[in-house]
Structure formats: structure tokens, C-alpha cells
TrEMBL record:
Annotated organism of origin: Gluconacetobacter liquefaciens (Acetobacter liquefaciens)
Protein name: DUF488 domain-containing protein
Highest taxon above the source species: Bacteria
């Protein structure tokens, strides 16, 4: 039996956006709980903190677009080093539709974009 590859079906959504039936498995990929969101209010299936950038990298980046290119390279190195949660998310993304949830306000310069691209290439 040929397994369907769902890696191209990795969506991105801010935690503040309403869930939709087509989201699939909703995975929070931030290390810190999003501000202003009650834990019982966020519809998510998993919270994988360790797929987020390390605290040192997150602090260094500080969501500064000037550091975006270097941030991507450093975060990719962290992802390539791997950990159990990255492996878990990669396996999940290979089986079914996944939506990565993140809290960053910047839709263009955030770690979820890098993570999605990494997972698609895995």
C-alpha cells in the first residue's frame, strides 16, 4: 500500500485566528504560552515547545527583520540537530494535515515559516 504524503499539507495560523474544519491536527509550536489566550480557549491538539527556537536564539532574534536571514540559518541548524519533538512533528506531518499555530504578530518573519519549510523538505 502506498502511503499518501501529507508534507505539503502543512498550514500556518496565528493562535488568535479562529479554527477551521480543514486545519487538521493543530499544533502549537511556540516555546512560551501566547499572551492573552486562556489555556481552555485555544483549540489545539498538541503543544510541542521543543520545536521552537532555543531561548538564546529567540532572544537574539527579537523579531528584528534585519536579523531574519541569519535567524533562519541558525534555526535550521537547530532543527537539523533534531530532538524527539521535531521527529514527532515530522512523522505526524507525513501522515496527516497539520496546522502550525504561532503567536508572533509578524506574518513574514517568524519561526513557524522556517519550521514549515523544514518539515516540507524532510
Amino acid at each position: 500500500m502506498v502511503r499518501e504524503d501529507h508534507r505539503s499539507e502543512i498550514g500556518l495560523k496565528r493562535v488568535y485566528d479562529a479554527p477551521e474544519p480543514g486545519d487538521g491536527v493543530r499544533v502549537l509550536v511556540d516555546r512560551l504560552w501566547p499572551r492573552g489566550v486562556r489555556k481552555d480557549a485555544l483549540k489545539m491538539d498538541l503543544w510541542l515547545k521543543d520545536v521552537a527556537p532555543s531561548p538564546d536564539l529567540r532572544h537574539w532574534f527579537g523579531h528584528d527583520p534585519v536579523r531574519w536571514e541569519e535567524f533562519q540559518a541558525r534555526y535550521r541548524r537547530e532543527l537539523e540537530a533534531g530532538n524527539p519533538e521535531i521527529a514527532q512533528l515530522g512523522a505526524l506531518a507525513g501522515r496527516e494535515k497539520v496546522t502550525l499555530l504561532y503567536a508572533a504578530h509578524d506574518l513574514v518573519h517568524n519561526h513557524a515559516l522556517v519550521l514549515r519549510d523544514f518539515l516540507r523538505g524532510a
